[in-house]
Design goal:
The chain is of the alpha+beta class. The protein is 18% helix and 33% strand. InterPro entries: PRA-CH, PRib_AMP_CycHydrolase_dom, PRib_AMP_CycHydrolase_sf.
C-alpha cells in the first residue's frame, strides 16, 4: 500500500480534530507498519503533523531545538509514513512507518531497548550502528 495524502480540506478538518496540549504538541508513537515493533515516541505540533500527512515522510517537533525535525535529516534514518491514526481521546497519534535504518539516536532499531528487571534495567539490544556515524558526535 502506497501512502495517499489527504485532500487539503480533509487535512485541515483532521488537524482540527487533534487535541494538542497547552504547548501545541501531541505525542506521536512510531511503529513499524508490518512487524508491529514500537520504534520511538516523539512530539508533533500542527505543522509537523500537517507536513507528515502531506508528504508521507515523518516530521516531528523538537522541543529542545524548538523547530521542526524531519526524521533522518541529519542521520539518514528516514521514516516513510504508511498510515497515521488518532487515538480515542484525540491526544496521541500513532504513525505506522517504514523505518529505514535505526530509529533511536543511540544507534538501536528501537528506543525501547531497556526492560525493567528484578535487578535493574536490562539492555535488550545492542546498537546496530555507532551513534558517531549517525550524527558525527556521541549521544547517550
Amino acid at each position: 500500500m502506497t501512502y495517499q495524502a489527504p485532500t487539503p480540506s480533509a487535512l485541515e478538518t483532521m488537524l482540527d480534530a487533534v487535541s494538542f496540549d497547552k504547548a501545541g504538541l501531541v505525542a506521536a508513537i512510531a511503529q513499524q507498519h508490518d512487524t508491529g515493533e514500537v520504534l520511538m515516541i516523539a512530539w508533533m505540533n500542527r505543522d509537523a503533523l500537517r507536513e507528515t500527512l502531506q508528504t508521507g515522510r515523518v516530521c516531528y517537533y523538537s522541543r529542545s531545538r524548538q523547530k521542526l525535525w524531519r526524521k533522518g535529516e541529519t542521520s539518514g534514518q528516514i521514516q516513510h509514513l504508511h498510515e497515521a491514526r488518532l487515538d480515542c481521546d484525540a491526544d496521541a497519534v500513532l504513525v505506522l512507518v517504514n523505518q529505514i535504518g535505526v530509529a533511536c539516536h543511540t544507534g538501536r532499531r528501537s528506543c525501547f531497548y531497556r526492560a525493567f528487571g528484578t535487578d535493574g534495567l536490562l539492555e535488550l539490544t545492542k546498537p546496530e550502528i555507532d551513534p558517531n556515524q549517525l550524527y558525527g558526535h556521541s549521544h547517550g
